[in-house]
Write a structure and sequence with these properties.
The protein is an alpha+beta fold. It has 15 helices and ten strands. It folds into three domains: about 200 residues, Beta Barrel (Hypothetical Protein Pfu-838710-001), CATH 2.40.320.10; about 120 residues, Alpha solenoid (CHAD domain), CATH 1.40.20; about 140 residues, CHAD domain (Alpha solenoid), CATH 1.40.20.10. It is globular, with a radius of gyration of 29 Å.
Length: about 500
């Protein structure tokens, strides 16, 4: 079957009135007869995660309502998938909160732990037009669509005409398209309606990274990078408080960690005392968020771990799961109170007030390029020195020290990226990330082992669980310890490659 063709019409909105559509299609009436079907109106709400995972996976999920609760529709496969709803949906929703079926199956892998929520809502009015030859046979179907975005902002209608052939013969499609294009009122478009609506609403909105130039005062560049971290925190606060999905808290914590690292790395180029004045506040913020994030990680991994049991059954871990949930409720209560506190709001407001003038007009005589070269040398030297000192017998504390230094190097690289050779930067980042992954696995194994022992003790002291639960938890503990040992063994080889593949040399010559 020949493919359909879509044209944009730039005339005034018609509300799909028959007379207006027939007037726009007048050139076709010399050869064809046009028969208009009934007008159809619907509200369509497009759904995605906060970081656009559905769209990035080539899928489009929408909730479409003509009457009643409506239907969920998923585009992206060979044919659209539709699931009629029996009650109005509630957003945001994670995959497990959607009804079982092909829609949930189709997006679960793309969204993972994230929740879907409305990104754009529009009102569409459509009318189908049958294009017939003189003998009455239909050769082409036209769909006239007028779509008006109503959220997050109201836009003028987008008017599109889609030509859908009904026979193998594509001559009529080509002829009709050429006839309409010749009027000058139509233009071809390859964009989907969703793409065009997103464009009119300036979506997806992305935070622009701060511009950093080689001759910019170093304090101005650092303040801009810190303001970027602050913007990331502010963008995830509400999602964290509302517990929409665990990634909001994760992204909030990443922004806090970057802030703390930059305060340590660049304290000497900031106004005297500024880093010291705020370092304790951001450390307290990191400490506040850690327990809830740790519990999120445990709960997210528990199903997979439970199905990996070889002695116990997944159901044996049900009391442990409930204990984790109780702990999370308590910790999240503390977290939410902290994020809603006047002290927290004052920290962010005062931090912004301190940074904005500095980012606008820095006073440092040190240029960003000179600071970047000096700091990369310093941080790289620390990482390489610690990496060379690691042996299979090195205490775990020293391994964790290397992990912290590697993280400082990663954050330094992120700040100075605009000044780096792109190809060299990608190679260095790839080498560093490989090392960080192994160091992170070692750290996770140790932390999870410690936590599991503590949770088991808490359960014994409050409401002793069945023996099967303790045995299953013991099997999990053995798995964590094994994972840590495997990461420690893998670290030797990873460090060898990191130290001998030229990473240090590339870091020295990274700046453009």
């Amino acid at each position: 079957m020949p493919t359909s063709v879509t044209l944009r019409w730039y005339g005034p909105p018609t509300r799909c009135a028959p007379a207006a559509i027939l007037d726009a299609l007048t050139p076709l009436t010399e050869r064809y007869r046009l028969r208009l079907d009934t007008r159809r109106a619907r509200t369509r709400t497009y759904l995605d995660t906060a970081d656009w995972r559905i769209r990035r996976n080539g899928l489009v999920l929408s909730h479409e309502v003509v009457t009643g609760p409506g239907s969920l529709v998923l585009h992206g496969g060979e044919e659209p998938v539709t699931a009629r709803l029996t009650e109005p949906p509630s957003w945001p929703a994670r995959a497990e909160q959607l009804a079982p079926g092909p829609i949930r199956d189709g997006i679960a892998g793309a969204i993972s732990v994230r929740a879907v929520a409305p990104t754009l809502r529009c009102r569409t009015v459509t009318r189908e037009i049958a294009v017939r030859k003189a003998d009455g046979s239909t050769v082409l179907l036209l769909e006239w669509t007028e779509a008006t975005a109503i959220h997050p902002r109201r836009t003028p209608p987008l008017i599109r005409l889609t030509l859908r052939p009904v026979r193998e013969d594509s001559r009529h499609t080509t002829r009709v398209a050429r006839t309409l294009l010749a009027t000058g009122a139509f233009t071809p478009t390859a964009a989907t309606l969703y793409d065009e609506l997103l464009g009119t609403c300036d979506l997806p909105e992305t935070r622009e990274r701060p511009e950093i130039t080689p001759d910019q005062p170093a304090d101005s560049a650092i303040a801009a990078a810190l303001l970027d971290c602050l913007a990331a925190m502010e963008a995830t606060i509400d999602g964290t408080i509302d517990d929409i999905d665990p990634e909001y808290l994760h992204e909030f914590r990443v922004a806090v960690r970057r802030t703390r690292s930059l305060l340590k790395i660049a304290a000497d180029v900031l106004p005297e005392g500024l880093a010291d004045r705020y370092a304790s506040g951001f450390k307290a913020l990191g400490d506040l968020t850690t327990p809830t994030r740790d519990l999120d990680v445990h709960l997210l991994e528990l199903d997979e771990l439970a199905h990996g049991l070889t002695v116990g059954a997944p159901t044996d871990l049900a009391p442990f799961r409930e204990h984790l949930r109780r702990c999370r409720r308590a910790e999240r209560g503390r977290l939410v109170r902290g994020l809603r506190s006047a002290r927290f709001r004052r920290l962010l407001n005062d931090w912004r007030t301190a940074l904005e003038p500095l980012a606008e007009t820095g006073v440092s005589s040190l240029t960003t390029r000179r600071w970047a070269a000096d700091r990369l040398r310093t941080v790289t030297r620390r990482v390489l020195r610690k990496a060379r000192a690691i042996t299979p017998a090195t205490p775990a504390e020293e391994v964790h020290g290397l992990r912290k230094r590697a993280k400082e190097l990663r954050y330094t690289l992120e700040v100075v990226q605009p000044l780096c050779h792109p190809a060299s930067y990608r190679k260095v980042l790839k080498d560093l990330k490989r090392l960080q992954d192994v160091l992170g696995a070692f750290q996770d194994g140790e932390v999870q082992s410690e936590h599991l022992r503590r949770y088991a003790q808490e359960m014994l002291e409050t409401s002793p669980p069945p023996a099967a639960t303790l045995l299953a938890m013991g099997e999990l503990l053995a798995g964590f310890v094994r994972r840590q040992h495997e990461a420690r063994h893998e670290l030797t080889g990873t460090l060898g490659r990191f130290l001998t593949t030229g990473t240090g040399s590339r870091l020295k010559h990274l700046l453009a």
